[in-house]
Amino acid sequence: MKVVAIVPAAGRGERLGSPVPKALVEVRGVSLLARAVSGLLDSEVVDAVVVAAPHDYHAEFVRELAPFEERCEVVVGGHDRSSSVRLALESVPPGAYDVVLVHDAARAFAPGAIIRAVVDTVRSGAPAAVPVLPVTDTVKVVDAAGVITATQDRGALRAVQTPQGFTDAVLRAAYSARLDAATDDAGLVEQLGEKVITVTGHPDSMKITTAFDLAIAEAVLAPKEEA
Ligand SMILES: Nc1ccn([C@@H]2O[C@H](COP(=O)(O)OP(=O)(O)OP(=O)(O)O)[C@@H](O)[C@H]2O)c(=O)n1
Ligand SMILES: C[C@](O)(CO)[C@H](O)COP(=O)(O)O
Predict the structure, then answer these.
(1) In angstroms, what is the span from residue 10 Cα to ligand 1's centroid?
(2) Could you tell me if the CB of 162 is within 6 A of ligand 2?
(3) Which residues does the annotation list for site: Transition state stabilizer (predicted)?
(4) Cβ(10)–Cβ(77) below 8 Å
């Protein structure tokens, strides 16, 4: 079964506050982009990668990914994450791959074991698979004035990571249908009524969103990866 990974990397990283797009930010001399792409290719279950780049950084992303050029294509992304995934998916010929992963460039330290677990779950017959972790904080619902209106049952909540894996047909159906906006790809597939299976995620797959997250990556994640 052939596997392609789509890497949405066209975000600006406003919450990080970097002068360059977040994917080009380096941790110990290697960009998040290069780390995310090499992590996928090194997992030994991914045949090819399609990266969505900011429109004004396409050439720079191609240069950054030159070491992977035989198995990596760069397309121009869109105005939000979903449109970047859609544009990357459009560049993949339908049916050319059995499994499509979608993996944030911002989750640059996802362990190979998690990538393989997601792929294996789809290969075993699931339409979709996502890595998740239990929620460790108590989660409240608040109204517009900041007053709590409900407390969620934490036991039933999970924090969702990437890579998320889908059969080619299911992901294309989700991106072809007129659905409500979703913050992840599984959120679209759920609206089709397809079953999304969870696998156990990993703290190292954290999303680098803020300067604090970057500091954790510098201090904890990169040294582990390079050991
Ligand atoms: N127009 C966009 C917006 C986001 N992404 C990608 O989606 C992933 C998850 O998004 P997030 O971490 O929230 O990144 P940004 O949108 O860049 O962050 P911010 O909201 O702080 O600007 C990232 O790899 C990001 O590059 C994308 O491909 N296209
Ligand atoms: C896809 C995702 O990483 C799953 O947790 C997340 O939803 C992306 O976050 P964003 O801030 O909405 O881009």
Answers:
(1) 6
(2) yes
(3) 15, 22
(4) yes
Find the mean pLDDT for residues 151-172: 97
| pTM across the whole model | 0.97
CB atoms within 10 A of CB 93: 9
**pLDDT tens-digit series, residues 111-146:** 999 999 999 999 999 999 999 999 999 999 999 999
Q: How many domains does the chain have?
A: 1
Contact 58, 76 (CB under 8 A): yes
Going from the Cα of 18 to the center of ligand 1, the distance in angstroms, rounded, reads 13
CA of 195 to the centre of ligand 2 (A): 20
Q: Tens of pLDDT along 167-193?
A: 999 999 999 999 999 999 999 999 999
Name which residue sits closest to atom 3 of ligand 2, judged by CA: 161
- Identify which of 84, 26, 14, 48 has the alpha carbon closest to the alpha carbon of residue 34: 26
| Nearest ligand 2 atom, CA 164 | 1
Q: And the tokens for 54?
A: 């900011």
> Which ligand ends up closest to the CA of 164?
2
> Which atom of ligand 1 is closest in space to residue 208's alpha carbon?
12
Task: Name the residue range of residue 173's domain.
Answer: 3-226
CATH number of the domain bearing residue 200:
3.90.550.10
**How many residues are recorded in the chain?**
227
